[in-house]
Amino acid sequence: MILGQAKVVRYFPNYERTLEIAKTVIKERTYVRSKTDKIIHLSEAGKLEEIMHAKSCSDLYRVVGEDFWLATWCNSTAVEGKQLEGTRITVVKMGEHGFDFAIRTPSTPARWEDFDEEMAVAWDTISKAYCGENYGSTDFDMLENVRDAILRMTYYWYNFMPLSRGSAAVGFIVMLGLLLAANMEFTGSIPQGLQVDWEAILNLDPNSFVDSVKTWLYPSLKVTTSWKDYHDVASTFATTGSVISALSFSSDD
Q1: Is residue 253 a part of any domain in this protein?
Q2: Mean pLDDT across the chain
Q3: Do both 124 and 192 map to the same domain?
Q4: Could you give the residue ranges of the DSSP H alpha helices within the chain?
């Protein structure tokens, strides 16, 4: 969001919300970690109060006194009361006056195992919500639980973010594909200035993410069965070569 003294145009709109989330996490945890992963306790001498009054990442750095990082959390659906490690927010001093204020996605084995379990449960929830009495339904109201389940799985994907590039786009495309498979087509567009992946990252609970996204997503969903007329992917791209060719295609070709 900030690189030195420069505001990163693509991500800076999320600066204020990220700062508030960082303060929330510090207040709850009462510590952050140094760049060598050492715990830096902040519960003494009024430091937490100073943190809560911070107006910038430089204010946070002044209180902590060195480069540091903290991790958001995601409330689990699979295991009641469990919190998964979300995204790491880092503050690093750059030169005399600048700071690197950024988010980073950790790739630890324990985190992969946690999100693997969470995504499996989320997928099972979608399957059960749609494959019972709602299977094949074109009644929008009856599909509410299906929509919510799809958004919850999307929430965990966005917080997991395992790919080096394209994770946000992949998550959004899969979400739209699942909705379409359940006879709901998205006919609108993402509101200007909103980044769906950041909406997930900056919410500590999946239900909060669902409540936020559904306000603009659900009114733009149209019940349809048009997907049944689409060509079958397996028969259209029958070989590995044809799949690679299709995925490699660009409008410049």
Answers
A1: no
A2: 89
A3: yes
A4: 15-29, 47-52, 57-64, 109-131, 144-160, 167-181, 196-201, 206-217, 233-236, 240-248
Give me the percent of the chain exceeding a pLDDT of 90.
63
Q: Nearest Cα to 60, choosing from 21, 107, 12, 5?
A: 21
**pLDDT at residue 163 in the model:** 60
Residues 137 and 235 occupy one common structural domain: yes
Question: Pick from 69, 74, 247: which is nearest to 157 by CA?
Answer: 74
Say which amino acid occupies 118. E
Find out whether 32 and 19 touch, Cβ atoms under 8 Å.
no
Q: How many CB atoms lie within 10 A of CB 223?
A: 13
**Domain span at residue 58?**
2-104
Query: Of all helices (H) and strands (E), which one includes residue 169?
Result: helix 167-181
Burial of 115 (0-12, 13-18, 19+ CB in 10 A): buried
Q: Model's pTM, two decimal places?
A: 0.86
Q: Are residues 132 and 181 in the same domain?
A: yes
Considering the domain boundaries, does residue 41 fall inside one? Answer: yes
* Non-local CB neighbours of 243 within 8 Å, separated by 6+ positions: 237
Q: What is the rounded CA–CA span in Å between residue 114 and residue 165?
A: 22
Q: Give the separation between CA 177 and CA 183, rounded to whole angstroms.
A: 10
What are the tokens at 136?
A: 């094949």
